[in-house]
Every structure is written in structure tokens, then in C-alpha cells.
Amino acid sequence: MSEYEDVILAIDEGTSGTRAAVVAQNSQVHCLEYQPLQVSSLRHGVVEQDADEVLQATIEVCRKAIANAQCNKMRIVALAIATQRSTAVLWDAQTGKALTPAMVWQDARFTDELAQLAPEWDAKLLPRIGRPVGIRSPYLWASHHLANTPAVAKAYQAGTLVFGTVDSWLLWHLAQEKKSVTTPTNATSAGAYCLKEHHYHLPWLQTLGFPASLLPELHDDADDFGTTHEDILGISVPILACAGDQFAGAIGLGCTERGQAFCMHGTGSFVDLMMGPTVPTLQKGCESTLTMTARRQKGLSHFSVETFVPTTGSALNWVCEKLHWFDSPEQISELAAQASDAGGVSFIPALTGLRVPHLQPHARASLNGISISTTRSQVAYAILEGIAHSVAACIRANEAATGIPTKELVVGGGLSNSDTLLQIQADLSGIPVRRMAETARASLRGVAFLAGADGLLWDSLPDACAMLKTARLFEPKISHDLREQKINRWAMRIALEMEAADSLTSANQEHTYS
Ligand SMILES: O=P(O)(O)OC[C@H](O)CO
């Protein structure tokens, strides 16, 4: 028997930071390395990231995790990659360098332009790609660059322009094959992927002015993505999985079956209800809820419905880094635990517009109800309560869209380490909230399971997921009447924000392209 233990190297490249670690056959995550990433927003609606920095940071965390694993007698047998979804990159095949800043998924600079296409396209797109026109489009962003950015136009003319989402970007650099590839759990979020047919919606892309020749090749989420580049990572192993981070997280939380609901807390908070292998038909008027491909293996897709809050983890980072009110998100949670309630303070985490309970891209975040007696702990509590209210609204939206009640919410991602948040969540949602063990590593573990569940380390996904353990269950503790009261009060605050946003015409919005 070999003295080396076989493990899978997993990457979890999120918007706010990138991680690498190895996952062993007993499901343990070892050698975890992390680097934060910069996200810039120079004006409302525009959110960008440096793709070269994302790549370098990811390579660095991988190299450290690999070195550490080798010192600990572990043999890496495959690479698995989870990434933020829908963040778009344009690069030059010859230099391998990004030609513009990446457009982050929180970006909403094309809201008004897309709104003009909605009357003609919403009804056509909804049953095919699972979402209406929306507020952002990586493809429209690329078309604008083709028309307005000389370096992009030049590369296109020369046949060296490459377009992709962050998964495509990382695969291009980490694999020897140098192909632009994406997977359903990523493409579903970019807004031109036909859920049932597993191909792109070409008429829609044509309307957006996006050339089909630039489309990344579609693979399954568990697939053969080539072999890692020895010059870059120092190892040459097959890349066997590539998935959107939320859906890698779903697997890492054990949520793979119809009827299971999960919330991944990261830069934003994403609440999904798993729907099984048939594309669901949603009730009419559910504007905030999307249908997504949750995984695709061996040519079979599984779907989910998803409602999300774009800025939760990033709202906490903003409060800490820009206002310096708290040292860290952990401190917000510690202080919140000292308060019994928010003392009348309320927070709406709509830093890039509101998605739930209503879609209003022009809405702003707000902190209301402060008085001279308000304490720092109450403000901290209000911030967590605002996130929990938003997540509870996502659960209600998923239920309204499908008619399926949520019995329990399984949570993952960094914020799910906060006991206070999870208790408020259980109280406001009226359902138990389940925290899995090592919940912040769900995406790493899930994408490794996807890579290794075809006999490499595990016999199947259920076999791998059977090892997952619950760390704690948070039961609702408040009465039905008190819950309703709290929800109604929050709904009144939302109504005020909607009114304020409605009164701002799009002409008043600073909305320019660059
Ligand atoms: O940055 P994260 O981890 O919250 O993930 C971003 C999402 O995948 C965007 O769809």
C-alpha cells in the first residue's frame, strides 16, 4: 500500500477572495490557503475586478496548498474548480492578459439598455433560459467593448480575442489545452444558456451584438477539462470538475435532491430550492426568482430555483472597510450577540440595488431608525437582521414561484458561522436552519466531490455526501405573531426605499459606459 494519500486539489474562487485546499477521501479539507481579492466600484452600478489579480492570487493559493499537501504525504490526483458565476473577462490569446477590467456579476450598468429589450424578449427568454432579460449581461458588456475599446476590437480582428467567465479564464490558464470552456452552472448565470437543450440562445446573443464565434465551449460540470500546466502549478493532473460556486456549495452541503433548500452566504447570499431533473415552470409574476442548472453530469442536468441578495458579505465588508464602524464581520456577529434586538434600527442591504422582495436596480441600501440611545450592538444586530430578512424573503419568493414549502434551510459560506445570524434566520423564516460541519468549506468540498464521484475517490455523489455531518440545528424561537410583526415592519421599510428609488428617474442615475 502506498504511503501517500490520494486527494483532490479544489479551488473556490469567490468574488471577495480565492481559496485552494485539498479534499481527502474521508471528506476532510486540508492545507487551506486564502487570499482576499479587490473589487472596485467607481460609480453606482459599475462593479469591476482585475482578472489578472484573480488569476495570480488563485495560482498562489494553489501552489501553497500543493506544497503543503506534498509535505504531508498527500498525492494530488485531480483538480476541481469552483468560481464566482457570470463575472466576465476579455483577454488576448497571444499574451494571455486581460484586455479590460472584468465585469463583476454585481454590475448593473446596462439596466436601462436591457429594460428597453424586455417587452420583446422577456416572455421568449423566461421558458428557455430561466430568466427574463435582467439587469446585466456579460455578453452585452463584451459587445460594448468590441465597439468601443480599440484593444478589444484589434484582438477580435486579429482572431486572438477570447471571451469567458471566470471559470473559462482560470481553465484557459491552468490547463495545457488553451481552450475557452464553460459549464452549465456558470453559463446559466450569464443569461444565454438554454436549460433544457444545453446550448446557447443564439437569437438573443445576436440581438445583444455578441458574435457566436466568441462563445466558450459548453462542457458538463463534471467532465474532462484537460490537464494542468506543470509550468504553472508544478503538477500535471486531470481537471475533472468546474462549477459555479453556489452549486458546488450545494453539493458540499449535501443538497442534491428535489425539495432540499440551501443558502450559500458569500459576497451575496443565494437561496436555492432544488428541483430535480425536470425544468420547473414557475408561477407568473415571480420577477426576482430564476431557474438555474444546478449541476450537469454524464449529460443529465438537475435544476433549481434561485432568489438572491447581491450584497450581504460585501455589505459587511463595506461597513468595516469604508465606515470603520467594526473591525471585521466576525466582530459584527460578536457585538450583535450582546443585543436582544435591533432597538428599532433596520438595515436593507441593497448596495447594488434591490432584488428581493422586489426588483428595483435603482434602490439604495439604508440604515434607518437610529436614535440617541441606539447602541453599537443594536446596529450590529440590525445589520444581521437585515440580511436574515432578505434571505427569508428569498425563501418566500422561491415558495411562491414553485408552490413548494421550504421545510428546512441548510446554510453554507462564511456568514453561516454566525450563531446570531442563524438564530435570527430561523426566527424570521419560521423553519429550522441547519449548519453543516465546516460549513465555510462547502464549495471546496462540493466541487471535489463532483470531480471524484465517478470512482476516483468516491463511488457516487450520494456516497460522498453521506459523509457530511450537521454541526448545529437552529430552531425558530419566536411566536408566529411576533414574526409577522417583524416581517411587516421590514416590508414597510422596503416600501419606503422602493418609493425613493421610483422617484429617481434613470436620467438622474450616473450611468455611463467605460
Ligand atoms: O462571490 P460569491 O462567492 O458570493 O459568488 C458569486 C456568485 O456566484 C455570482 O453568481
TrEMBL record:
It comes from the Bacteria. SUPFAM superfamilies: Actin-like ATPase domain. One of its GO terms (molecular function) is glycerol kinase activity. The keyword Nucleotidyltransferase does not apply. Residues 7-252 form the Carbohydrate kinase FGGY N-terminal domain. The keyword Nucleotide-binding applies. Keywords: ATP-binding, Kinase, Nucleotide-binding, Transferase. Residues 262-452 form the Carbohydrate kinase FGGY C-terminal domain. Pfam families: FGGY_C, FGGY_N. Belongs to the FGGY kinase family. This is ATP:glycerol 3-phosphotransferase. It comes from Citrobacter youngae. The gene is glpK_1.
